[in-house]
Amino acid sequence: MTPLTLGKALNRGLRNALAADPRVVLLGEDIGTLGGVFRITDGLQAEFGRERVVDSPLSEAGLIGTAVGLAYRGFRPVVEIQFDGFIYPGFDQIVAQVAKLHYRSRGTVKVPITIRVPFGGGIGAAEHHSESPEAYFAHTAGLRVVVCSNPADAHVMIQQAIASDDPVLFFEPKRRYHAKGEVDETASLADAKPMGIATVVAPGDDVTLVTYGALVQTAKDAAIAAAEDGVSIEVIDLRSLAPVDYPTLEASLRRTGRLVVAHEAGQQGGVGAEIAASLTERCFDYLEHAPVRVTGHDIPYPPAKLEQHHLPDLDRILDGVDRVLGRANSLSGVEA
After folding, report:
1. 295, 262 in Cβ contact below 8 A?
2. Which of 30, 52, 111, 152 ranks highest by number of CB atoms within 10 Å?
3. What is the pLDDT of residues 79-110, one digit of tens each?
4. Catalytic site residues?
């Protein structure tokens, strides 16, 4: 086992993919000499050359369009979107081309494109640098949408995404890039948990708490704090937003009878709404309380000085737990 930051684990995973398959090509703005703004691709151009780690022009639509052409020619392109809010100029290419080519060609064309997206807030960044656009893509048929939350998953899942014949939106929680964890760099991908399967990161009996990305650690902290008050929270890291691993979620909810879903993105039309509705349909007879969502507010992402009021934190998650348990709402002072 090797202690690595999440960012370094991604770097090692990308290196492994480049070394294992000559069809893998990295594309992105400043990913070569600079190594990317977060240094995720640091050293890879020096090792594999400019034809396989390509510094691109400043055009997300051009990046995605080029990746589509490369995929047609048998390559496995990996595109880095520099910041989450920069993905929108490439949105048409992703939803109208990348997501539909396999279906449109009746399965004759594969689109093994991986699009890496640093996402979420918490780093004190400027406008367009702290978005959470994952629901747009989870809504789009033909795309896989996955999110890593720790170094071990980051190392394996990026390699699984690149090896997949499906197009994958790979979301990386940028405020966790420096979080360290143990990584087994010798583990076989064949033996690793598939990237579409959720993980129970903390077992519990009273409440099922579902989240992903940067909030997984916050949820684990909430579980520890709640245990001091006699409440047992089961924390589940989704890992995959499309498809969702409902069997794992159902098994937990049928035991606990109570569901809290947390994410940084706004509430309306969010991933949490879909999960709450789907689990209500599947587990209605087991529910002891209506599902509760703990999310960012339905506003444009606020200035850096205000983001701590926008992002779900430990107190807001614990408040959601109190509400689903039927306790007084500590933030509003009313009964749930």
Report:
1. yes
2. 111
3. 999 999 999 999 999 999 999 999 999 999 99
4. 129
